[in-house]
Amino acid sequence: MLASVGVRLSAASRGKVSLVSVSRRLCTKHPETQASLPDPLPDSEPPEQRRPKKDPAECSVLLFPGQGSQFVGMGRGLLQYPNVKEMFTVAQKILGYDLLSLCLHGPKEELQRTVHCQPAVFVTSLAAVERLNHENPKAIEMCVAAAGFSVGEFAALVFSGAMNFAEALYVVKVRAEAMQRASELVPSGMLSVVGRPQAQYKHSCLQAKEHCKSLGIEEPVCSVANYLFPDGRVIAGHQQALDFLQQNSRHLQFVRTKPLPVSGAFHTELMESATEPLREVLRQVEVCRPDINVYSNVDGKRYMSEQHVRRQLVTQVVSPVKWEQTLHEIYERTHGRKFPYTYEVGPGNQLGATLQRCNMKAFKTYEHVDVTIHEED
């Protein structure tokens, strides 16, 4: 069923140009191995057999944000760019509701729901790629790497040519619904924490779990869910554990704690029930090896094969996002070698903030592609 949905929506929506047409204009297309994929478009460019080596000083990296970056009004500054309205039209067919209206007008409470915000961030981020291509096509042409935070990883994979837009959106839909169901099983959440150098995050989580046990909670969960930057973490788990961390933050050497606007303890074992629906839907879609370097949240390493992509995307749901490690992997270079231009494509600029805390030299060439303001505003 999924294959036919992907073909029908992709083929019907693509018309003269492909969705996210800029994504892999620079890359060699993979051979189509499944009948479910649409035929190449008549106006598509012939594949390049060998891409010329790029000057490191002119290369670019694209970063795609994740859940929590959403806000009402996002996408308003993107509708004038090629393919963007078309992308939201396809999204409405796949999701069964008006995603564009939800992004532009809310209500906020509905946009923040996992089932809505994950597809919203995914589509808005790829729409921002269209803006970047319109304003600075060289940034697309010279892109050598991409990474996405949590659900942003799907946008990075679409951009890299590893997944089809419509099929990836369907996978995101299934993922979001499964994670929403998992989050409703027990009261849980996520807590952003900035600690002093002496803070011991794992030990703090252990104390929080012991507190939960004293309340009668069996097998409590509390663990680091996101590694953001040095001394910056997101901890997730049972709500009672997060309450304990906030109430004892000073004793635990936490400088600042802030609950995140999400509905569950993502990237922890509390999401275990979401893995099988995701694994099953990933079996139904075509996945290719990315045409550029795309880095996995699970270990910060590059994806090496289509099976590697499928496996890591499932593991990611119950594993911490190693974003700090990913940034180190992307920007590691020999002394004197220039850093690439970095573009954050999607709502918010949180990934730029983490880059600034991880690598100030790389941050000097960072730009955010705005999703709310028109070019002429």
Automatic annotation (TrEMBL):
Domain Malonyl-CoA:ACP transacylase (MAT): 63-376
Alphabetical UniProt keywords: Fatty acid biosynthesis, Fatty acid metabolism, Lipid biosynthesis, Lipid metabolism, Mitochondrion, Transferase, Transit peptide
InterPro entries per the UniProt record, alphabetical: Ac_transferase_dom_sf, Acyl_transferase_dom, Acyl_Trfase/lysoPLipase, Malonyl_transacylase_ACP-bd, Mitochondrial_malonyltrans
GO molecular function: [acyl-carrier-protein] S-malonyltransferase activity
Subcellular location: Mitochondrion
Superkingdom, taxonomy of origin: Eukaryota
Biological processes per GO annotation: fatty acid biosynthetic process
SUPFAM superfamilies: FabD/lysophospholipase-like, Probable ACP-binding domain of malonyl-CoA ACP transacylase
Region (Disordered): 31-55
Reactions it catalyzes: holo-[ACP] + malonyl-CoA = malonyl-[ACP] + CoA
Keyword Lipid biosynthesis listed: yes
GO cellular component, one term: mitochondrion
Pathway(s): Lipid metabolism; fatty acid biosynthesis
Family membership noted in the UniProt record: Belongs to the type II malonyltransferase family.
Protein name: Malonyl-CoA-acyl carrier protein transacylase, mitochondrial
Lineage, top ranks: Eukaryota, Metazoa, Chordata, Craniata, Vertebrata
